[in-house]
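hiii so um. not sure if this is the right channel but i have a protein structure encoded as tokens and i wanna go backwards to a sequence. like what aa goes where. can anyone help
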């Protein structure tokens, strides 16, 4: 590493460039500075030396040098609190805008020495103790605001062990990011006008769709159609059937049909429709400018739609 890069200020705060591989903490990645307590300790040593000089007191000299020895030896122990640890990125789950994205971080202690009072920080700070030859996993959270990719940012490990005179820290950046979906619209809005959309969502029903009987409940049937009286009597779970209703009906969730005053409001409404359609078990097509997905449902289709909205 070039000398100019080694003393670049951002290394002390943001760490080096983002990486995918595990990071082993060594002298190049660990930084140490005195804490407020440490600076007070230095002031005490200086005062003792001044007293010893003025009064020519050998005991004062001995005490000052003893405390100075403790001060300098503590530097090594503070470094050893982090040295040798191996930090590795884990997984992160997609979230909706406004929620906290969780990033999994794995910390391995391959040495025979217990590591105490380790702090790991992203936006929040967590404390842990690592036994010898052990691995710990923590989940750090970062609040999201906008849809798209949300980078984890700088993860900082630090410790003031053993005496609190020095703070050793190591800022690390991983190539780790969470996918953020648009924030769903707060209110339910009827699906775009299709033969089955309104009936499936329960907002209205054509006059020709008359009730004609029951059938055994099947996965995907609307909860609004469950015959609750039969269920209460212990007869089983049945769905009401209506003439003109076809369980194979499909709807199209189209960006051009989504209400809203701007792009984000339309994407928010589309996100709400996708969630509602998936929960109702409806087969739904999906259309954005430049992208069309055929009607389907299930987790894979659901994630494809939300991912398209996040990256639009």
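sure thing!! here u go:
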């Amino acid at each position: 590493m070039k000398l100019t890069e080694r003393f670049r200020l951002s290394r002390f705060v943001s760490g080096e460039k983002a990486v995918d591989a595990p990071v082993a903490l060594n002298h190049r990645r660990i930084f140490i500075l005195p804490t407020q307590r440490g600076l007070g300790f230095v002031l005490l040593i200086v005062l003792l030396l001044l007293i010893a000089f003025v009064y020519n007191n050998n005991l004062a000299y001995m005490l000052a040098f003893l405390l100075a020895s403790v001060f300098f030896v503590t530097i090594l122990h503070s470094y050893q609190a982090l040295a040798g640890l191996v930090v590795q990125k884990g997984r992160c789950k997609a979230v909706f805008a406004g929620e906290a994205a969780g990033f999994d971080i794995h910390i391995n202690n391959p040495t025979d020495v217990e590591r105490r009072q380790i702090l790991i920080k992203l936006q929040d700070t967590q404390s842990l103790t690592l036994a010898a030859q052990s691995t710990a996993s923590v989940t750090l959270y970062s609040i999201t605001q906008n849809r798209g990719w949300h980078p984890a940012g700088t993860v900082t490990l630090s410790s003031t062990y053993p005496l609190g005179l020095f703070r050793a820290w190591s800022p690390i950046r991983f190539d780790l990011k969470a996918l953020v979906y648009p924030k769903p619209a707060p209110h339910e809005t009827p699906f775009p006008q299709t033969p089955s959309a309104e009936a499936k969502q329960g907002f209205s029903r054509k006059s020709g769709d008359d009730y004609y009987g029951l059938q055994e409940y099947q996965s995907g049937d609307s909860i609004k159609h469950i015959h609750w009286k039969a269920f209460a009597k212990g007869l089983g779970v049945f769905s009401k059937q209506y003439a003109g209703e076809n369980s194979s009906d499909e709807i199209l969730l189209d960006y051009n049909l989504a209400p809203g005053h701007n792009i984000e409001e339309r994407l928010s409404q589309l996100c709400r429709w996708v969630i509602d359609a998936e929960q109702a078990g409806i087969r739904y097509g999906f259309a954005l400018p430049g992208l069309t997905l055929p009607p389907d449902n299930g987790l894979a289709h659901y994630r494809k739609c939300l991912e398209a909205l996040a990256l639009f």
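oh and The radius of gyration is 31 Å.
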